UniProtKB/TrEMBL annotation:
InterPro entries: PTrfase/Anion_transptr, PTS_EIIA_type-2_dom, PTS_SugarTrans_NitroReg
Name this polypeptide is given: PTS IIA-like nitrogen-regulatory protein PtsN
Gene3D superfamilies: Mannitol-specific EII, Chain A
Domain PTS EIIA type-2, chain residue ranges per copy: 3-150
Cross-referenced CDD domains: PTS_IIA_fru
Classification via SUPFAM superfamilies: Phoshotransferase/anion transport protein
Domain of life: Bacteria
């Protein structure tokens, strides 16, 4: 299994003032590093207007911006920890605005794996301690280790069948 997590896709203390700025920040990086082709950030921004991705988390809101795999070269999950909360509209309730403290762009190449990854991300969203550790970390390698369970092939199992580690 190809790793979804890369230190180059973790942006800490990001100075972004809007959902669109955050999406474009990561979109530019994804394009520069060869994960997506030109136009990907535009596509994610357009989708965000119609199908917002803000979600209330266990202790604060996060966003999972994504789009269809048309412009994806290889899959990834990014992490943006904004300096100040960023407003995203809430998934399923676009009239509701959330102050998002963690943005995790999902770069999905295989549409069939999208639902599985989103389900796994729901576990991350529900874990207040994990979210806080990610948000407070200043080490991209530590964030990758904290998020390693999202690379599971099946619930409770890492790629290759190894049991998922407990996150404390």
């Amino acid at each position: 299994m190809t790793s979804l997590l890369h230190t180059d896709l973790i942006i800490l203390d990001a100075e972004v003032a809007s959902a669109e700025e955050a999406i474009r920040l990561m979109g530019d990086r994804l394009e520069k590093l060869g994960f997506v082709t030109e136009g990907y950030a535009d596509m994610v921004c357009d989708r965000e207007k119609t199908y917002p991705t803000g979600l209330p988390g266990a202790s604060w809101a996060i966003a999972l911006p994504h789009t269809d795999p048309t412009l994806v070269i290889r899959p990834a999950v990014g992490v943006i920890v904004p300096r100040e909360p960023v407003e995203f509209k809430m998934m399923g309730a676009p009239d509701t605005t959330l102050d998002v403290r963690l943005i995790m762009p999902l770069v999905i190449k295989d549409a069939n794996s999208q639902l599985s990854l989103l389900k796994t991300m729901m576990g991350v969203i529900a874990d207040a301690q994990l979210l806080e550790r990610i948000r407070r970390s200043r080490d991209p390698r530590e964030i990758i280790e904290l998020l390693r369970p999202i690379e599971c092939d099946e619930p409770g199992r890492m790629s290759g069948g190894t049991p998922r580690p407990k996150i404390r």
